[in-house]
Amino acid sequence: MVKAIEVKGLQKSYKQLQVLKDVSLEVEKGSIFALLGSNGAGKTTVVKILSTLLNQDGGNATVNGFDVTTKPDHVRQAISLTGQFAAVDEILTGRENLIMIAKLRYLKNPRQVADDLLKRFGLTDAADRRASTYSGGMRRRLDIALSLVGKPQIIFLDEPTTGLDPEARIEVWKIVKELSGGGTTVFLTTQYLEEAEQLADRIAILHEGRIIASGTLSDLKKLYPSAKVEYVEKQPTLEEIFLSIVGNKEAI
Ligand SMILES: Nc1ncnc2c1ncn2[C@@H]1O[C@H](COP(=O)(O)OP(=O)(O)O)[C@@H](O)[C@H]1O
Ligand SMILES: [Mg+2]
Prior knowledge:
The protein is of the alpha/beta class. It is about 40% helix and about 25% strand.
């Protein structure tokens, strides 16, 4: 497997609070990887370290083959980040937002880049309206479109659907699937088990500073205690698997 991201023994504390104790993971090029964890588990901390916004205390991480600590510029050229809170400029129109970022990235045809992305994200009709008039789902789509200016190979989406209504969430899922279909590697974080279940090729569960389980959905299903499976008619949901694993860990 060609690895887009490799993380080994990552550690990070904020003063006394040890958020990441020992995080290791690998993401295959062109795949969708979901880092699943409750609020405060440390997902954003992992994303910030991988996107060179924050230094780790221990362990190492490479993104697109470059070490995040020693080659941050190379890493930044390969990635884009869509944070938990939209980075859209409300005063500008959707089109202006895109053109601004394309210019900041010194692209040759900012208008063309903007037009293409507006079309791809179903925002052509709303292109010349201020972003402040957009619905939550439209804003999030514009936000993801902004992060795609310049065609990054790896895209980090930190809780891309938190706060969205179910319809807008499905729109974002569709976009994520399309991105991956086009060869982009997607690293997303989520608190929603269903989201990981719907989208991810591989899932890692971050809990109390460690990856307590990882693999494909079917790998994770195998971890679900078989004795319990006998009593349910349907396949276990990721939620049941999650609770079962987290519950077990807490019992130790
Ligand atoms: N800059 C910071 N200073 C102190 N504590 C922080 C800082 N950033 C995050 N934390 C704490 O670290 C923990 C993990 O945060 P975060 O990575 O944002 O988790 P998640 O994204 O999974 O919700 C939380 O308890 C949070 O309050
Ligand atoms: Mg977060």
